[in-house]
Every structure is written in structure tokens, then in C-alpha cells.
Design brief:
heterodimer, A: mainly beta, seven-stranded mixed beta sheet, four-stranded antiparallel beta sheet, 11 strands, globular, B: mainly beta, 50% strand
């Protein structure tokens, strides 16, 4: 099983600042990496797939990078609606053997 | 508009069974793989199982393999999860999720999610 880790567990950021979230895979997943945002009481929302492609309707302040085992989600200028938990997910196998990272909570500094 | 509506959750005793359903609408159901993802209270996301558009490929997390069975009925636009030998650690909100890519192996990232159905395993 591919193990995903995320750092930091919690990131305290002021509105308007940049946030950088990290995700690491225990073995290469190529670019088969997605990022989701989840707010309390809501289902997750797809932000990024293919490590760097924004999903439909996702603002340009969200960007993803990386390949292999190291990935980054950057939020260039945090808005109030961006305070949430962010999960990375690898999908490198078929039949599916998907794993999620434990999440990074972005809260208000 | 894509809609995924889960049902079938509830309180069940350890060792018993439960069957979850997900009713899909707003897209061509038999063109997309579907998955179940769960979230224990206050915890992160855990992938449970996935099934290809034609039921030809199926995968399970190690934690549920041999106890859970995923299936789909394309004529009814429905996804199912049969859960047997339930344990306390299966307590979670179970989401049904649709993959974004049509009839593509792999590419298992999820563009639509239901609101979930809560399963509580307790005596």
C-alpha cells in the first residue's frame, strides 16, 4: 500500500498570505495525485488532479506542483473561504488501491 | 445537475450486516467508475472500494477486503456496498463518489460526492 503523508498537520495563516502545503508518497505515484478541500459538515471538493491541473471552477490562486513522491499545493493569497482541511490522494493503481493523506488544516492566524 | 444520494446507514451491532445504496442522477452512470470513501467522526478520509463502469475491475482497501462487497446496477443508476461482519472501527460517514474521467482506467479522482450516510457500529 502506498502511504501518503502531509505536512504540516496544521497551518496558521493570515488572510492574504500565501499557504504552502506538502504531500509525500511512500513510493512514486507519477503525477497521479489529487487535492481536495473539505469544510466542516461538507463533502470534499476536488481542487487539483494530475498533480497540477485545476478542476473546473477552481480559482487560479490554487496551484499544484510535483511528481513522483513530492507534491505541493499552494494557495497564493488566502481568502476567508479557504480556511479548511486539505487532503491529498494518490490514484496510481488499477484496479484501484487509492490512499489519502491525513490532511492539513489551514486555520486563521 | 449531478446528484449522488446515499442511503442505508444506521446503528448496527458488531458482527451484523448492512447494505448501503447510492442513487445517481444527472450523468450517464454507466460511463463512470464509482467509489465509496468513508470518514470516521473527526478523522480523515479513507478510501473503501471502487468499481469500474462495467463492473469489470474492483478494488478494496485492506481494512475491508473479505468483508465488504461493492456492486452496481447500471439499469437502476445505483451503486451498492454490502458490509458484513461489521466492527466498531467501521463507524463512519460513508460517501459515494464519482470519478471525473469517462471510461478511463486509473484516473480515479473524484469530481462529485454525495452527502454521505452514517454507519454506527455499536452494541
Amino acid at each position: 500500500e502506498i502511504v501518503m503523508t502531509q505536512s504540516p498537520a496544521t497551518l496558521s495563516v493570515s488572510p492574504g498570505e500565501r499557504a504552502t502545503l506538502s504531500c509525500r508518497a511512500s513510493q512514486s505515484v507519477s503525477s497521479n495525485l489529487a487535492w481536495y478541500q473539505q469544510k466542516p459538515g461538507q463533502a470534499p471538493r476536488l481542487l487539483i488532479y494530475g498533480a497540477s491541473t485545476r478542476a473546473t471552477g477552481i480559482p487560479a490562486r490554487f496551484s499544484g506542483s510535483g511528481s513522483g513522491t513530492e507534491f505541493t499545493l499552494t494557495i497564493s493569497s488566502l481568502q476567508s473561504e479557504d480556511f479548511a482541511v486539505y487532503y491529498c490522494q494518490q490514484y496510481n493503481n488499477w484496479p484501484p488501491r487509492i490512499t489519502f493523506g491525513p490532511g492539513t488544516k489551514v486555520d486563521i492566524k | 445537475e449531478v446528484q449522488l444520494v446515499e442511503s442505508g446507514g444506521g446503528l448496527v451491532q458488531p458482527g451484523r450486516s448492512l447494505r448501503l445504496s447510492c442513487a445517481a442522477s444527472g450523468f450517464t452512470f454507466d460511463d463512470y467508475a464509482m467509489h465509496w470513501v468513508r470518514q470516521a467522526p473527526g478523522k480523515g478520509l479513507e478510501w473503501v472500494s471502487g468499481i469500474s463502469w462495467n463492473s469489470g475491475s474492483i478494488g478494496y482497501a485492506d481494512s475491508v477486503k473479505g468483508r465488504f462487497t461493492i456492486s452496481r446496477d447500471n439499469a437502476k443508476n445505483s451503486l451498492y456496498l454490502q458490509m458484513n461482519s461489521l466492527r466498531a472501527e467501521d463507524t463512519a460517514l460513508y460517501y459515494c463518489a464519482k470519478v471525473a474521467a469517462r471510461r478511463v482506467k486509473g484516473e480515479s479522482y473524484f469530481d462529485y460526492w454525495g452527502q454521505g450516510t452514517l454507519v454506527t457500529v455499536s452494541s
